[in-house]
């Protein structure tokens, strides 16, 4: 039996793509292993959002090329966004590379791996568009008592943010039929999954190409209602949205749909209207704040996370201070902070006023320290409260005898003493201590 190792870089969508490829290879008879040293096939699923992610993947493949000198039969492959963007040039850069598969061809990986292991001599590149490819990210690995799962509902993005390479690497928006999504969810809940996270580049845009608005409700809201009606589902999350998709019908879902968790990831990117305009984000700071106010009016304790970029071309100290002020004003529960990364092929790459790396680093550190203080303050408010936690399993690092971890409905990670038999259960946990990133508690 041939053995496969897959390493994933980047976002939750990449994780879901890797899992689907792994499941397809397993169903083809391959064994999945946790170490490249044990593998006959090594696949790197890549990210292009930032240059650092690409450099990490390229560096890793360079090291694997040395491994191939000792084991010439091993198959080396790139999948995903960087593969889509760079294509056959990756073979030129890394002659040891056997396979380059783009974002609409994940389902072809088992066929190509079969060919290469049977002795195909020519490297394979496939980055062509394929109609219907959004419906192929469906297989899941056996959950092994995992109570959570990602479900891809759409692929691609039709927006034109000036810093983003995703429309190039993922293509135009393509939505899956609702019944296919619901069938996948039913299969997962039959296997013990309780929490579903709906995935897409811009999830509120789901279904615009295939489902009409009904009773003033967008296709995405119709999907949320349908998932909420599934008896096996206990919790629903979704990522990633865009502020322009948060209209009344979606905001009203919070507090109305019992299974929809009280948590929203709402990327702001900047606190400066001038920079938001240069980013082509399509909203102002004032509009963003109105959306947050309406969400908090619906659910006062709703948790809010965001994305923020520092060092976008032309960002002045005043622009940056406005981002700091946005964090102070809105008191985000958490944030993903990014240093602007110049991506060839995006409008921002050629804009005037490129900020130096030293200045980007300074701003990033200042924003990080502020966000740590705000997150700690938000988490400390939860000490003493009893929260529902979905037990996910043992922590991956710093294992302590009897310690388990899980997440609250508001997406906080909690550590507490429990047994392995509690995995997959929804349990009440009293919060006893908080850090900026983690809660600690005890079963009640």
Describe, in short, the structure shown:
With 444 residues, this protein is of the alpha/beta class. The protein is built from 13 helices and 19 strands.
- CATH topology call of the domain at 3-126: Rossmann fold
Q: Helix/strand-derived class?
A: alpha/beta
**What is the architecture of the domain at 3-126 at the second tier of CATH?**
3-Layer(aba) Sandwich
**Form type:** globular
The N- to C-terminal Cα distance equals 47 Å
The CATH class name of the domain at 3-126 reads: Alpha Beta
Assign the CATH superfamily of the domain at 3-126: Methylthiotransferase, N-terminal domain
Q: Could you name the ranges where pLDDT drops below 50 across 5 or more consecutive residues?
A: none
Walk me through the structure.
The protein is an alpha/beta fold and 444 residues long. Among the domains are: 3-126, Methylthiotransferase, N-terminal domain (Rossmann fold, 3-Layer(aba) Sandwich); 386-443, Nucleic acid-binding proteins (OB fold (Dihydrolipoamide Acetyltransferase, E2P)). Helices cover 33% and strands 21% of the residues. It is built from 13 helices and 19 strands. The protein has helices at 12-27, 51-70, 81-86, 89-93, 109-117, 166-170, 178-190, 219-228, 248-251, 273-279, 285-298, 317-330, 357-380, and strands spanning 3-8, 31-32, 41-46, 75-80, 99-101, 124-126, 148-152, 154-155, 174-175, 195-199, 235-239, 263-265, 303-310, 334-339, 386-393, 403-408, 413-417, 426-434, 439-443. A six-stranded parallel beta sheet has the order 2-1-3-4-5-6, sandwiched between helices. It has a five-stranded mixed barrel with strand order 15-16-17-19-18. A three-stranded parallel beta sheet has the order 7-10-11, sandwiched between helices.
